[in-house]
Amino acid sequence: MARRRGRCSAAALWLLGFMLLRGAPSRAADTVAVGRPLSGRQTLVSKRGKFALGFFQPDNSRQNWYIGIWYNQISKHTPVWVANRNAPTSDPASSQLSISDDGNVVLVDKHDANKAPIWSTNLTNIASGSNTVGIILDTGNLVLADASNTSVVLWQSFDHFGDTWLPGGKLGRNNRTGEVTRLFAWKSFDDPATSVFSLELDPDGTSQYLLNWNGTREYWTSGTWNGHMFAAVPEMMASNASPMSLYTFDYVEGKEGSYFVYDVKDDDAAVVTRFVVDVTGQIKFLTWVESVGDWILFWSQPKAQCDVYALCGAFSACTEKSLPSCSCLRGFRERRLSAWMQGDHTAGCARDAELRQQCGGGVVHGAMPKGNNDGFYAMPGVKLPSDGQGVAAAASGGECEAACLAKCACTAYAYNGSCWLWHGGLINLQVQDTGSGGGTIMIRLAASEFSTTGHAKKLTIILVVVAAAVAVFSVLVLALVLRSRNRSRVRAARRVEGSLMAFTYRDMQSVTSNFSEKLGGGAFGSVFKGSLPDATATPVAVKKLEGVRQGEKQFRAEVSTIGTIQHVNLIRLLGFCSDRAHRLLVYEHMPNGSLDKHLFRSNDGHGIGSILSWKTRYRIALDIARGMEYLHEKCRDRIIHCDVKPENILLDGAFAAKVSDFGMAKLVGRGFSRVLTTMRGTVGYLAPEWITGAAVTAKADVFSYGMVLFEIVSGRRNVEQREDGGAVDFFPSMAVSRLHGGGEMKSVVDGRLGGEVDVDQVERACKVACWCVQDDEGARPSMGMVVQVLEGLVDVSVPPIPRSLRVLGDPPSYVKFFSGLPSI
Is position 474 within any domain? Predict the structure, then answer.
């Protein structure tokens, strides 16, 4: 029996050994070594699983593959370093990362007969016969080290930054050679090739960091180090509640080199952060927030995107309040359309028609060209580029124009008492907000860009021919339409522009049972309940738009734009109807209706809907902020809502909030005065600039959000008649007074909650609301900052009391203030 047990034990050990050998990985999980290359879908993962290295494709890229490092423990694929950023490979299966015969880490294509490396660490001082390995560390650093002693680092990716500066990395300067390390932005969102934007420590020896364009033009500086912070970055001296307090900062200056380094104070803390030179040319400090599933920005420079030098390239204008921020000037088109669509605008724009270039003769005066001469068109309200050349001899606008026409290279001029000329590509032209001043620049164009009699005649002939063809085509289409009307009435399954459904007006009558159940109404029209004729009878909300003046083509284009906007906190557009004069939108149905029904009491003192707990209210406030942040900061075309109020905040079955009616200003067109008049009737949500007639920006929405946030806290309208029937009661003034007076913040919360609130969140919400309703729109935070504060990532001080709240808090002043508003 003993012998048999021994044989069994030996067999078990043999089997276990075989299984272990068979199941053993072909490589150390974090190491590439001789005989153990990395190829295809294989990855290296750092010991604690923080970072991974392998082949990847950027978003929207279908052909190019890169070897890179990315975060391994977050849900969003975010590369932090790319080896072959300027030399992509087309097939990861035929490419491999390995240790070459000379000890370097190399990327090669196995099918390349020459076996020339696509990328290499490119060291020439590795001792012959050395055994080296490549290791990915938990810092995100790839190191080439001696296999027998991996602490001997021969090369590291932290000395060859990409666009990202990770904690522990040293961005600095070799004081002996003068060589500096740089961060280079990606060329576009799906192209990691080096861009013209870079960050570096001043090569001239000072302690300031510089943002440069093309290595020649500085457009931002950190200021010098004073021992605690950089002069232009006061955020480094942040309070303990600020995200900056999570990090240590140190600037080291020595004989060999100078560098700046930052690190996370608690290495065990679940903090994932990165510092990046963005595609936009801005530097950004971001932290990963898992509950949001995205990177949260808490610091960036320069603050204004248009302050990035040559962001839009030549003959393009930058507009701060729109995304994309770059647009070609009249008479110009995108020089590299594919790159432009991917976010890389640096190539700028090219002329549609070349200049005649009359040098020294045939001078033309005035705004319109004569004959075949070059002419000018006026572009007002711009911040003029700083590289203009003064012409002292030109004493009038006509002489200034003549001076420009006399030079072949002159592309624009401006006269404001002095004459300025611009030559070559027009760089750094910025469109100013309406009412913000700015000058007028005259852009030089070829004569063919202007209307002439000859062109008008040709155009008339073309239009007549086209009109005749359209008439014939319309008859044929009408015949087909009449024939198809005998078929199914509801053709909702017809999809256009992606996932949107196109309906006829009869379809809408059928879906809504002839508009029999009205859910509500507002400035832009009435909303009716309906159900789609599908297998599950999907409930929908159908909005009949009023006051729309757009033609069908323009309306469909705007609807298509809005239809592509999808966010968990924005109401989803399912379809539309553009049938003769009828304009309708079909949205997902929100079973819990609008926020106002749950916040405000009815006339008999009872709540119209269910009483929302404080936890639900705070989540709703955060939901709204995230939806507004998306509209303002993350849409390709920035959308200003123009009518943020509880009636336009809808709640789904779980009381998650979704912003509705966004994009209405686009749909009803520029001349929506009737809508604005109606909106002005919604007392209590309008920013001062609406009333004064000043230019309206996204900060008007921020003001409205602040007013809504006050109402979420109080559970009542901001403006209410007191119970004694006397003076008007203005809640925001009372809440702000409590903030400044150090009063009990529980007392400002809806009394129906019985004091069951988080006092810290109440104080935070009131601070945010007060900052949002500042008189000066420049003092109001962005919606992105609002989200960060409500999430507790950023702390804010008690804001000053806005003058408007002082006025509105005084009943006689309040009545006087609103008595001047337009009547409805």
Answer: no
